[in-house]
Design brief:
Layout: H1 3-18, E1 23-29, E2 45-51, H2 56-61, E3 72-77, E4 82-87, E5 92-99, E6 111-116, H3 121-139, H4 143-163, H5 166-188, H6 206-209, H7 211-221, H8 225-240, H9 249-264
C-alpha cells in the first residue's frame, strides 16, 4: 500500500470508529504508530480498539466498520482478543479489541493514541513501562545461557539435518539458534541507531541498526543447513569471543567438528 493510501486508510478508520459511541479508544501500534519509523509499501495496519464493556465481540465478528470491508478475502481469530484480516490487494490488518478491564494483557512498545474518550493515556504509559521492564528482565538472561543455547541449537539442528529431519534441522539453526544469538550481538556490538531495535522481537529492524552484521547473518541463513550453522558460528565467534567471560572455546570447537561431520553426510 502506497504511503498516501496508507494514510487515507488510517484516517477512514479513525472516522468510522469515532462515529461509534461504543468505541472509547483507538491505539496505533507498529509502523502505524509512526513513532520510530514511518510505514512503507509493505506495512500492515496494526491497532487496538478499546470499547465499553460488552461491545468487544461485535468488533471481533462484524467488519463493516473497516474501510473497504467488502474487499476482505480472509478473516480469522488469532488470539482471544485479536484477529488478522486480509484484503484482496494483499494489505494485512492485525488488530485486537478490549474493554478497559481486559487491557492488562497488552504488551506495548511504540504506540500512538488516535481516539481517547476514557483518559487512556496514563494507562497506556503504564502498560508501556511494564513492557519495557519485562523486556529488560528477559535481557538479563546470562551470557552463558544465551551462548549455550545458541551452540546447542546449532548442534541439534545439524544432527537432525544429517539424520534426514531437514525441517526440524532448519528450525533449530535458522530460528532457535539465531533467536539466542541476536540478544548477545545487540548487547555487545555498538550501534548509533539503538532506537530502531524492537524490545519485543529481536529480529525486527536488526539490519537497520547493524547493516553489515545484518547482511552477514542474512547471507548465512540463505545457505544449506550445515553451511548456515558453520557461518553463524563464524559470525558469533568473531563478534563475541573478546566480550564473553569464560568464552567456551572448547565447546565451539566441538560444535564446529560436529557441523563438519554433518556436512560430509
Amino acid at each position: 500500500m502506497k504511503p498516501e493510501a496508507y494514510a487515507a486508510f488510517t484516517e477512514a478508520l479513525i472516522r468510522n470508529l469515532s462515529a461509534d459511541p461504543r468505541v472509547i479508544g483507538l491505539i496505533a501500534a507498529g509502523s502505524m504508530a509512526q513513532t520510530d519509523h514511518a510505514p512503507d509499501v509493505w506495512s500492515d495496519h496494526d491497532f487496538w480498539i478499546v470499547t465499553v464493556p460488552g461491545a468487544q465481540e461485535h468488533f471481533r465478528t462484524v467488519f463493516d466498520w473497516l474501510p473497504d470491508s467488502a474487499r476482505l478475502v480472509l478473516a480469522f481469530r488469532e488470539t482471544q482478543h485479536g484477529l488478522k484480516l486480509l484484503y484482496d490487494t494483499g494489505h494485512l490488518i492485525e488488530y485486537a479489541v478490549f474493554d478497559e478491564a481486559e487491557m492488562d494483557v497488552v504488551r506495548i512498545n511504540s504506540y500512538r493514541l488516535l481516539i481517547d474518550r476514557a483518559n487512556l493515556a496514563g494507562r497506556l504509559a503504564a502498560l508501556q513501562a511494564r513492557t519495557v521492564s519485562e523486556a529488560a528482565r528477559r535481557a538479563e538472561q546470562s551470557d552463558s545461557y544465551l551462548f549455550g543455547q545458541f551452540l546447542t541449537n546449532l548442534l541439534v539442528g545439524v544432527g537432525r539435518h544429517a539424520r534426514g529431519e531437514h525441517l526440524s534441522g532448519h528450525d533449530f539453526v535458522r530460528r532457535q539458534a539465531i533467536g539466542h544469538l541476536l540478544p548477545l550481538l545487540v548487547k555487545y556490538i555498538p550501534t548509533d541507531r539503538p532506537g530502531l531495535l524492537d524490545n519485543l522481537d529481536p529480529l525486527r529492524r536488526f539490519e537497520f541498526a547493524f547493516p553489515a552484521l545484518g547482511e552477514q547473518l542474512d547471507a548465512a541463513l540463505a545457505l544449506d543447513t550445515p553451511s548456515a550453522a558453520d557461518a553463524l558460528l563464524d559470525i558469533a565467534d568473531s563478534a563475541l569471543r573478546a566480550h564473553l567471560a569464560d568464552y567456551p572455546a572448547a565447546a565451539v570447537a566441538a560444535v564446529r567438528g560436529t557441523i563438519a561431520l554433518a556436512a560430509a553426510e
